[in-house]
Amino acid sequence: MEPLVHNINALFQQLGLPDSDADIERFIAVHSPLDRSTTLQNADFWNSAQASFLQEALDDDADWAEIVDELDARLHNQATQRAIPGKAWLSKSCSSYLPEMCGY
């Protein structure tokens, strides 16, 4: 059985946030760049349920972990990396261990 792969829109929906592409880009623009010393789940813009979900996704290496890592990278690197509309956005570290998903 293949593992479930979530996209960023589904993550935002799971977090109870507006989940259109434009809403996600706006959220990232407003909340980035996130200070390097701040972990994603400890950022001050999450409520306790959202922070707990993000922490559990990472701790349990859950189905959501990859997309949570993507959001983390985008919030920490917004000044230097931008998504290409219509193309999946993956960090360099992600592309190094998921070449089949990245198309490299």
Please give the structural blueprint.
Blueprint: H1 8-14, H2 21-31, H3 48-59, H4 65-77, H5 92-97, H6 99-102
Verbal overview:
There is one protein chain. The protein has 104 residues and is mainly alpha-helical. The protein has a single domain, classed as Orthogonal Bundle (Arc Repressor Mutant, subunit A). The chain is 51% helix and 0% strand. The chain has six helices and no strands. It has helices spanning 8-14, 21-31, 48-59, 65-77, 92-97, 99-102. It is globular. It starts with 7 loop residues before the first helix and ends with a helix. The mean pLDDT is 79.
Task: Based on the model shown, name its key terms.
6 helices, globular, mainly alpha, 104 residues, Arc Repressor Mutant, subunit A, 51% helix
Q: DSSP strand (E) fraction? A: under 5%
Under the CATH scheme, which class?
A: Mainly Alpha
Second rung of CATH, namely the architecture: Orthogonal Bundle
SS class = mainly alpha
- Count of beta strands: 0
Computed over alpha carbons, the radius of gyration is 13 Å
CATH topology: Arc Repressor Mutant, subunit A
Q: What profile does the largest beta sheet have?
A: none
Count the domains: 1
Task: Give the integer mean of the pLDDT values.
Answer: 79
Cα distance, first to last residue?
A: 24 Å
Stretches where pLDDT falls below 50 for ≥5 residues? Answer: none
- What is the overall silhouette? globular
Q: What is the element string, with H for helices and E for strands?
A: HHHHHH
Helix content: 40-55%
Question: Helix count?
Answer: 6
Look at the structure and name the CATH superfamily.
Answer: Uncharacterised protein PF10982, DUF2789
